[in-house]
Structure formats: structure tokens, C-alpha cells
Design goal:
311 residues; mainly alpha
Amino acid sequence: MKILNRMTAAFKRKALRYFIKLILLFNIFGFNTLFAHDVEDYDPFQIHGITEEYIQELAALGYANLDKGEIVAFKIHNINQAYIAELNQLGFQGLDAGELIAFRVHGIERDYIEQLDALGFLNLDAGEVIAFKVHNISLSYVQELHQLGYANLDAGEIIAFAVYNIDRNYVNTLDELGFQNMDPGSTIAFRVHDIDKSFIDKMNALGLNHLNEDEAIRLRVFNIDSSFVERVRSYGLFDGIANHLVALYLLDLDDALIKSVKSLDIENYSLEEFLQRRTSHRYDHGHNSSMRMAFKRVIQIIYDQSFERLN
């Protein structure tokens, strides 16, 4: 799922930036002083013996524009030429200051990189390596995912599985709900959007049965509820098909929609232009063929149906 891939990548970037910021703050000031009112009275350079000579040494290593917090973190964690050279040999050249600090804080050295290589992850970027370490992604966890049918996950997907605690128990729960052999993106989406037995039961009670994973995700993402189902029923358009319900939601079902559809040259209209007018940019119409079919079908149903309330 394209949306999930973008979300996963954005999540990694934001989490990494936030985490590194916390590292810097805690290392410079400590937990107690971080929240003290007189933090400005502390001089971390003086406390940690940071001299102009040390700053020039960092510049010579390629880190000439560090801010004060980064300089202190380099000093505290003894980030030196030998450590940078080792990372360069392992394929991590040109790490920025935050990445380098995170590597050092989490003890990411040759032995850990070799462990990742043994897992089959030979070309991870710095952010992915940090995420693997932070979330303790181990050989046993990867093997468990393989046994559950997720043998070809990429690094981002494995990180998302670990972040959202997707394990054997969770996959078994999905199986019990009737969602077997789901792809990684759908599994992550179910976890992210909290699609559970309670939600599925609620949809069943509304007359939406035998949902597939894509339908369940759409119903959750677009927050389809009993009030909207009742609106659809009031127009005589409810047929129990989840994608039709979502299509009507995205088309903003109301009297104006009915009139717009009735005015179409139904044999020659442009679906794309009609969707653009009715939904703006709220849905990527070309992303999924089943939703394209759903839009076409509900438009045809509306066109063919008589609505006494509008006569």
C-alpha cells in the first residue's frame, strides 16, 4: 500500500529526529536538570572540559558545524576518529551528527552490523540500523515472522512490525477474525487503526459482512458509522457492500449528489472529472481498481433509481 509505505518512512524519520533530540538533552543536562528552572546556569562546555582545541579536532573529522548540544554529546560518548573510521569501513560514511551520536549511544559497532548482515539485511541505512537496535529486532523475532508467513519483509516493514508489536499472538487474533495470509501493509494498517473484533462486530451489526482486509481498512480509515449507514438507508441505497458505502461517503451523499448524477450523460461522462468535482483531493481515485468500480457502480445505481423525495 503506497500510503502505508509513505507513513512508515515518515514515522522512521520523525521518530529518529525526536529520539536523537532527547539523547542530546538528557546527556547534556541529565534528567533532573532538564526540567530545572535554572538550566541556563549550567555551562556544559565547562562541565565536560570542552576546549577550542577539541572543537577544532571535530572540525578536522568533518564535523565543523555542530551545535553546542552535539559537541557535548560527542565528548560524553567519546566519538573519535577511530570510531568514525570503523563505521566508514562498515559502509556508513558521512553520517550526520545525530546519526553518529545515536550509533554510539546504542553501542552500534562492527559486531552488531555483522549480526544484521547474518539476518540478511546487508544494505540498511543509518536510520534503519538505529531503529533495529532501539527496537531490539533479533534473529528469533525475524524467524518468528518468517514462520507466520512474512518471509520477505523489507527493513521498514520489520521495523513497523516491531514498533506496533505485531507478533504470533496478534497474527493469531487476525486469523480468528477471518483475516488469514494478509500482506504486510494490511497487517500494519490493522494494527495502526486498531481494527479488532469489536470493530468487525460493529460493522457486521450494520449489515456489512464477509469483509476483506481492504474493505475493513477503508471503513475504519473513513470512520463509517451507524449515522452514515442510516443516511444511506434513507436514500434506499444501502446494499451491504462495503466499497459502495465508502464510495457514497467520499461522494458526500446528499440531495445535491443525486441531482448531479441525474444530470449526467451517463454513457459519456468522465468518471475522473466527476470524482474531482465531488471529492476534491480526499481520495486517490487511480490507486485501487476495486474502488474505481465501486464509484462507477454507485453512480449508475443512483442514475437508475427513482427518488420520490426529490420529485
